[in-house]
């Protein structure tokens, strides 16, 4: 045993530690859990009882010595790499390698463009909660209690106990109109982009979660002509001046009169294709004059003020603008899809 300790001491003192690799070998061979020192500690039990203490102490000392040598050398090597002179062959005039930050999501690009276009003519942005109460989502918007119109929008209810207020995931951005009118005085010119939810099976054309942008204009003497001109301006700024708009009479409980907004199909340029079902037109949203009852329920005097509103699907607009044929692409996070859009600067 004594001999082994002396031999090991001599080896440890003489070991060449000039490189990080040798230092690592040293650690494995001597101080590591399967190293030679650990072997000697294991053999300690074979040493006669009366010598065991002294041999044990000697072994411990040797271990400390080995560890000290290891740590000292490790620090020396580390500071040597830190203070190493710069590589003389490195060309400092090379342009930097650009940092790839990814791309912007197409729905964000389009939402921001919509906000930009409408803020130029005086609309500001308002927001409301995604978990909404039944009153804002339906009642204040003239959907009568227990009226089948509520089934038009397959609702996800969050909390539904008879006799208590109902909570739901908003089925459209129209409740934000009510919230804006409750808290602001006319003139009101707001757009309300946001996420909405409907209990629909997910397919290429439908999703249980999508986005809308609502617009609301309330002032004295607001007319349907104002609505039409604003929609013309908006569509031409967004899609280009060769795109046509048509208003189709429709029904919404919260507007009177109501219309649906169609634009000429951007895929076939009006000639007819399967996206526009061979009509040459695609619907992008609904609109109308805010029903006086809705104004009144939201705290605006319908004798003095009138207003128009619209709601459009951001996915629909994005699909038309970029010719995307499957709604599911927006939420699948497939990099081959996402990388085709504008890079983050
Ligand atoms: N909220 C309607 C929907 O989700 C869209 C809509 C229609 C919004 C007419 C409006 C409007 O503001 O005036 O189907």
Automatic annotation (TrEMBL):
<dbReference type="GO" id="GO:0005524">
    <property type="term" value="F:ATP binding"/>
</dbReference>
<dbReference type="GO" id="GO:0004826">
    <property type="term" value="F:phenylalanine-tRNA ligase activity"/>
</dbReference>
<feature type="binding site">
    <location>
        <position position="256"/>
    </location>
    <ligand>
        <name>Mg(2+)</name>
    </ligand>
</feature>
<feature type="domain" description="Aminoacyl-transfer RNA synthetases class-II family profile">
    <location>
        <begin position="110"/>
        <end position="340"/>
    </location>
</feature>
<keyword id="KW-0963">Cytoplasm</keyword>
<keyword id="KW-0479">Metal-binding</keyword>
<keyword id="KW-0030">Aminoacyl-tRNA synthetase</keyword>
<dbReference type="GO" id="GO:0005737">
    <property type="term" value="C:cytoplasm"/>
</dbReference>
<dbReference type="InterPro" id="IPR004529">
    <property type="entry name" value="Phe-tRNA-synth_IIc_asu"/>
</dbReference>
<dbReference type="Pfam" id="PF01409">
    <property type="entry name" value="tRNA-synt_2d"/>
</dbReference>
<keyword id="KW-0436">Ligase</keyword>
<dbReference type="InterPro" id="IPR022911">
    <property type="entry name" value="Phe_tRNA_ligase_alpha1_bac"/>
</dbReference>
<dbReference type="InterPro" id="IPR045864">
    <property type="entry name" value="aa-tRNA-synth_II/BPL/LPL"/>
</dbReference>
<dbReference type="GO" id="GO:0000287">
    <property type="term" value="F:magnesium ion binding"/>
</dbReference>
<comment type="subunit">
    <text>Tetramer of two alpha and two beta subunits.</text>
</comment>
<keyword id="KW-0547">Nucleotide-binding</keyword>
<dbReference type="InterPro" id="IPR006195">
    <property type="entry name" value="aa-tRNA-synth_II"/>
</dbReference>
<comment type="similarity">
    <text>Belongs to the class-II aminoacyl-tRNA synthetase family. Phe-tRNA synthetase alpha subunit type 1 subfamily.</text>
</comment>
<dbReference type="Pfam" id="PF02912">
    <property type="entry name" value="Phe_tRNA-synt_N"/>
</dbReference>
<dbReference type="InterPro" id="IPR002319">
    <property type="entry name" value="Phenylalanyl-tRNA_Synthase"/>
</dbReference>
<keyword id="KW-0460">Magnesium</keyword>
<keyword id="KW-0648">Protein biosynthesis</keyword>
<protein>
    <recommendedName>
        <fullName>Phenylalanine--tRNA ligase alpha subunit</fullName>
        <ecNumber>6.1.1.20</ecNumber>
    </recommendedName>
</protein>
<dbReference type="GO" id="GO:0006432">
    <property type="term" value="P:phenylalanyl-tRNA aminoacylation"/>
</dbReference>
<dbReference type="GO" id="GO:0000049">
    <property type="term" value="F:tRNA binding"/>
</dbReference>
<dbReference type="InterPro" id="IPR004188">
    <property type="entry name" value="Phe-tRNA_ligase_II_N"/>
</dbReference>
<keyword id="KW-0067">ATP-binding</keyword>
<dbReference type="InterPro" id="IPR010978">
    <property type="entry name" value="tRNA-bd_arm"/>
</dbReference>
């Amino acid at each position: 045993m004594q001999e082994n300790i002396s031999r090991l001491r001599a080896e440890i003192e003489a070991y060449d530690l000039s490189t990080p690799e040798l230092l690592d070998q040293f650690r494995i061979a001597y101080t590591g859990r399967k190293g030679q020192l650990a072997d000697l500690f294991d053999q300690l039990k074979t040493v006669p009882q009366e010598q065991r203490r002294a041999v044990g102490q000697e072994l411990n000392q040797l271990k400390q010595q080995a560890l000290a040598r290891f740590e000292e050398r490790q620090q020396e090597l580390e500071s040597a790499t830190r203070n190493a002179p710069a590589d003389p062959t490195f060309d400092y005039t090379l342009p930097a390698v650009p940092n790839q930050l990814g791309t912007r999501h197409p729905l964000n690009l389009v939402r921001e463009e919509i906000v930009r276009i409408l803020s130029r003519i005086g609309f500001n942005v308002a927001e409301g909660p995604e978990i909404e109460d039944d009153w804002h989502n339906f009642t204040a918007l003239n959907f009568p209690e227990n009226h089948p119109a509520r089934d038009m929008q397959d609702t996800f209810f969050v909390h539904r106990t008879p006799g208590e207020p109902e909570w739901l995931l908003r089925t459209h951005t129209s409740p934000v109109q009510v919230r804006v009118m409750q808290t602001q005085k006319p003139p009101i010119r707001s757009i309300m982009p946001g996420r909405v939810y409907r209990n629909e099976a997910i397919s290429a054309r439908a999703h249980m979660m999508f986005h809308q942008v609502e617009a609301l204009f309330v002032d004295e003497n607001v007319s349907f002509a104002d609505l039409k001109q604003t929609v013309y301006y908006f569509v031409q700024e967004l899609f280009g001046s060769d795109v046509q708009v048509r208003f189709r009479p429709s029904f919404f409980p919260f507007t009177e009169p109501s219309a649906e907004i169609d634009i000429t199909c951007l895929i076939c340029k009006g000639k007819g294709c399967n996206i526009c079902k061979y009509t040459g037109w695609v619907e992008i949203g609904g609109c109308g004059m805010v029903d006086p009852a809705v104004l009144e329920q939201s705290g605006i005097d319908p004798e003095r003020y009138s207003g128009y509103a619209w709601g459009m699907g951001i996915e629909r607009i994005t699909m038309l603008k970029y010719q995307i044929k499957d709604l599911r692409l927006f939420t699948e996070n497939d990099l081959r899809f996402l990388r085709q859009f504008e890079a983050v600067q």
